[in-house]
Amino acid sequence: MNEIEWTPEKGEKCGIAGVYGAPKAVNFVVSLLADLQHRGQESAGAGTSDGRRLHVRVKKGLVSQVFPSSRLPSLPGRMAIGHTRYPTSGGFYPRFGQPYLHRKPNFLLAHNGNIPDVSDLEMDLRRHEIDPSGLSDSQLVAKAIGIRYQREKSLENAALQVFPNVKGAYSMLLMDLKYMIAVRDHYGLRPLSIGEVGDAYVFASETCAFGPIGAKHVRDVEPGELVSVSANGFDSKRFAEGKQKLDIFEFIYFARPDSMLLGKSVSEVRENFGRELAKEYPLDLDVIVPVPQSANEAALGYAQATGIPLKYWLIKGRDRRTFIEPTPEMQLQGVRQKLSPVPGAFNGMNVGFVEDSVVRGTSSRQLAAIAREMGAKKVRLLSASPPIRYPDFYGIDLPRQEDLIAHGRNEEEIAAALGLDSIHYLSYEGMIRATGLPESMFSTACFTGEYPLDIGRERKKVEGLPKEGA
């Protein structure tokens, strides 16, 4: 049987989780991390406080591999934070696994996102005679907080001094012996939700992680907000005037379909992507086939709107993915995901594949070739998002601009390069309509080149950007 060797074109971001006030808090955090595994599969870590000292375990591998039940008793305490990692800055394990333990003063930090321009942080450390060489963006933030914590004797006060000046994409959890702190960047580019289970507070990158531990979603951490939890209770402070600009790729690809973002069901929004595609491109097709898993809902929406049969003819191999390979070399040499077509599929048919997005086009090219080998008459591709023409600097591992298949090509040229009869992208306007939310609530930089946060030195690497201030 033909098999498509398929590696993810978009590296997942990281997932973070925290629990305050629960017996054996690490058990809850490990469960939360397991339901955030899709956000990062290179390493996993958790840290706890028993009120006297911090306990940390960080290791390469999946959550289930890093935290077998036999390891959990070594992480005592009623408060814990955890992290699943896909590397976006500073390289990969072991030096940059999280939670990061800052020493003297001791505290933990877990970060989801990326800070594209760290020059101000580096300058700050140098002023305090700390060499920033070789530190990741997360570690630079931790060092800056550590300087103030040493002086202020308060993790919260130190954080409130640092985060107003950190210009980047971040949702972070910090923890010392007594306090847990959650912060979200000025634009809320990365999600972070608050829940409750019994008398305990829960934090997680996505709401899908709450249900399995019996937690109730209360609200999201707001852009520019710092939330602290301690024996004194729950407190909220603003360190910046926030303006919501969630990365729209959370709806397109990253978030699990059973999560809620900005009050909207991810599954329903993805179905709406498909319905909008059907309005824009009512193609003459015999069958609609989603590329699993994140295109399933869009394909369903398209099929329902057009009446074209939906077939799940591409099967993702189970238990094949051990972790998302973070470099092209490792992708070529390491574990590859397999998409196996159902025997007898495609023969004599006009096939419409649905993908959540098209980045490099590698898997799309392979899909077209396999479908033709299996007898397809026509092979068309429907993308549930617009053409990606700009790289990401906020925590998605999208490639260099020159590697993007849509960079410098129109749709006919893209189809020819991928061996397709045609390719059809959801319009930008259709994408926004599908969310049911105002365009102003999103960062859409990968499609428009309009970066809500200054990307600093990275700006020189990108062609065709709108003029600043235009």
Short summary:
The chain is α+β, with helices and mostly antiparallel strands and 470 residues long. The protein has 13 helices and 24 strands.
Topology:
Layout: E1 4-6, E2 15-20, H1 25-34, E3 43-49, E4 54-60, H2 63-66, E5 79-85, E6 100-102, E7 107-114, H3 119-127, H4 137-152, H5 155-162, E8 169-175, E9 180-184, E10 193-197, E11 200-204, E12 216-220, E13 225-230, E14 233-238, E15 246-247, H6 249-254, E16 260-261, E17 264-265, H7 266-280, E18 287-290, H8 296-306, E19 314-316, H9 328-333, E20 337-341, E21 350-355, H10 362-373, E22 378-383, H11 411-418, E23 422-425, H12 428-435, E24 442-443, H13 445-448
Helix pairs in contact: 3-4, 4-5, 7-8, 7-12
Q: How many individual β-strands? A: 24
Q: Characterize the biggest β-sheet.
A: 7 strands, antiparallel
Structural class by sheet pairing and helices = alpha+beta
Q: State which percent range the strand residues make up.
A: 15-25%
The number of helical segments is 13
Number of domains: 2
Average pLDDT works out at 90
- How would you name the CATH homologous superfamily of the largest domain? Aminohydrolase, N-terminal nucleophile (Ntn) domain
Q: Tell me which CATH architecture of the largest domain applies here.
A: 4-Layer Sandwich
CATH topology category name of the largest domain: Glutamine Phosphoribosylpyrophosphate, subunit 1, domain 1
Q: In one word, what is the shape?
A: globular
